[in-house]
Amino acid sequence: MKLNITDAAHEQLKLLQIEEYSYLRLYYDTEGMGCGVNGLPTIRLTNNYYDKTDERVENEQYSVIIDHQQATFFRKEMKLDFIKNTFRLSSPEGVLNPIIPTVSVKKEAVL
Predict the structure, then answer these.
(1) Which whole number is the average pLDDT over 56-85?
(2) Helix (H/G/I), strand (E/B), else coil: 93
(3) Could you give the CA distance from residue 66 to residue 1 in angstroms, rounded to a whole number?
């Protein structure tokens, strides 16, 4: 799995990053969705690095991780961009999440 981060997204992540939250987690958010298979692919800055169920995601700018059980909700090739003051996660197959607010990126993922 690979995540390409555009320059615009990289600059915004640097502005949001807190020192102790130095990892970027791909996260399938099911909060408020009613069921574990209903959710939305998103991102979170975290200090929770590499649990035994985590896998590394290829990326040059960040240490990116994902829980191997949640990987099924993502694509092999993805792009993280920053457009109109929100992050956008997409793949060659289409948009995975068109609106990821900056405030949610700093919210700790509940695993």
Answers:
(1) 94
(2) coil
(3) 10
pTM > 0.85: yes
> DSSP string of 29-70?
E-TTSSSTTS-EEEEEEES----TTEEEEB-SSSEEEEETTT
pLDDT band for 33, please (50, 70, 90 cuts): low
Contact 41, 96 (CB under 8 A): yes
Q: How many CB atoms lie within 10 A of CB 43?
A: 25
Question: Both tokens of residue 8?
Answer: 């615009």
Q: Report whether 73 contacts 26 (CB < 8 A).
A: no
Separation between Cα atoms, residue 46 and residue 25, nearest integer Å? 7
